[in-house]
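Limitations
The structure tokens in this dataset are predictions for the assembled complex, not deposited experimental models. Users should treat interface geometry with appropriate caution, especially where small molecules or nucleic acid strands are included. An illustrative entry is reproduced here so readers can see what is and is not provided.
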Amino acid sequence: MTKVVFLDTTILIAWFVHPQPIKQFIAKTLDGFNFRVSSLVAKQEFCRRLLREADYLQRLLARKKSFKLVFEHVVTVLTNHHGRKKQICLQSLSTCFRDDSDGDQTERLSLFLDDLLENGLEDLNEIVDSFAKNSGCANGLQGVRRKRTSWVFPPRECQPKTCTIDSFLASLNQLNRLLHFLSSRNDLTTELDRALSFLRQLSPDCSNAKRENPCLTVGDLIIALESDTAGATFFFTQNKKESVILCEHLNQQLIVCPVNPDNV
Amino acid sequence: MTNPTELANTLFDESSIITETSVSSSDRSNLPTNTETELHGTTSGRTRPTVFQPKERDQFSRSIRALREHCESVLVASKQLVFAAERQDPMDQELAGSEIADSLSKMWAERKARDEKWRRGLNFLQSATANLDFDMLNLEQAKTVQRCVEILCSSMLDNSDIQQLKRELRSAGLDPWNAISGNPE
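Predicted assembly:
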């Protein structure tokens, strides 16, 4: 029997840049499955969270011309207050290549970031057998491309002319049931509260869906729906809070990858 | 197994290096006026001749020769790693591993003579083998290290070679992204 597991964005990112025990946990978990799927919305989140950070660091490197200065900047300026969770671990580079000069470490980081931007999306094909495309998320289809010396990312907002997320949502016959399910819960997180509001204001033909930029604002909901239409009976994530509720509704088994490597 | 010396010699072709003094004014306009000390690869794999000042040419030639030597050393060491793994001799594995790490380090020091793709490949291989316990590698992993070294020491690398190198490393449980992986906060 084919065991299909869905990999959400957190797993795609962790497979690249999280600590070794986490990567080993992911590899060991995936060994137990015949088929691994992800989705367009997960892909665009991967671009937005990891590849944009790589681009940001690359620009910072070009400006400061020093790994040390970039590292200091990231530690002192990019605090949690700014609301952006850092993914790429600069500490590791300074440890692995501690005997290198600042100039050498600068070049090494630049080489890593260049490859991540150029080949990161293609590398995902090693861990994902298929990306579900039912949602038609235009930003997920677009990916990242090089333009001379810089990188062009898909916009954060929905692309109204090319995106077919509204058709996808309209094709689902479970939205009402999901709406009632979420309405009956008193343990919704902020993200799921937003998902509930989104579902409530959705018109019967879902033609107003794109106005709300659903892939940006209620990504967990859309990804859950994508996983269901992809036929996944297992959902693999580091993000337990929303997934535990959505998986209950979708009758999927939740597999949680620890965030803290000490908990592996 | 390809002779390490032959393999290393195919890597670098000094005949494409041209010094400024040897270029006539009529030929000059046909050449790229690039004064960087790099050997550029094109997508077709052919090298483009680069114009150097004589002093740069000497430095470049020295780097090329040094890289050839280090390539030979690392190819031999990777072969020894496999032999040691076949005999299940952890001490010899560790010795070969040290030699590999040392040679890769020396190649990094001479990297200016190579293009960006090659440096990426070297960077990934060093990242994957940084702090690696070579004495704990099994035979398949040792063979993977050997294959990756051979990829690195082959002729011009293009993007598909880099992708293959990363795939080889990951298939053996080695991590090309090791150096930027960890707890970022």
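Some entries come with short summary sentences. For this one: Chain A touches chain B through 33 residues (CB under 8 Å).
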